[in-house]
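WARN no homologs supplied; continuing
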Amino acid sequence: MATTPLLWTGGWDSTFRLLTLLLREQHEVQPYYILDSLHYRPAVPAEREAMRLIRQALLKRWPEAAVRLADTVECQLADIEAKERAYESDGRLNRREREELHHDLDRLGERLRFERRDTQTRY
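OK structure emitted
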């Protein structure tokens, strides 16, 4: 079975999907965590700590599933945008793939904006 990529933040939604893939569907999972070096997000340390604790609990309770969870790959948002531009310029990114990528990036951006508003409201 192929490894399933997953954008994981340690939050409820992405962790639910992670656990579904690991425990119910028995997939190998490659988590990705996207960082934006141009904009500070106060939630980053808490998200990293949540992911660490979730991994720890998974290893303790479901060790057979924990071995199917790869190390998290951290990606810079600027690198993703640069790769998108390169793929578009040489034709490696077709229209459907570009639309899917834009949709995913839009959802990620909206989540980041929501988290920023939520964090600013709480403090």
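The helical segments are 12-24, 44-61, 63-66, 77-89, 95-122.
OK
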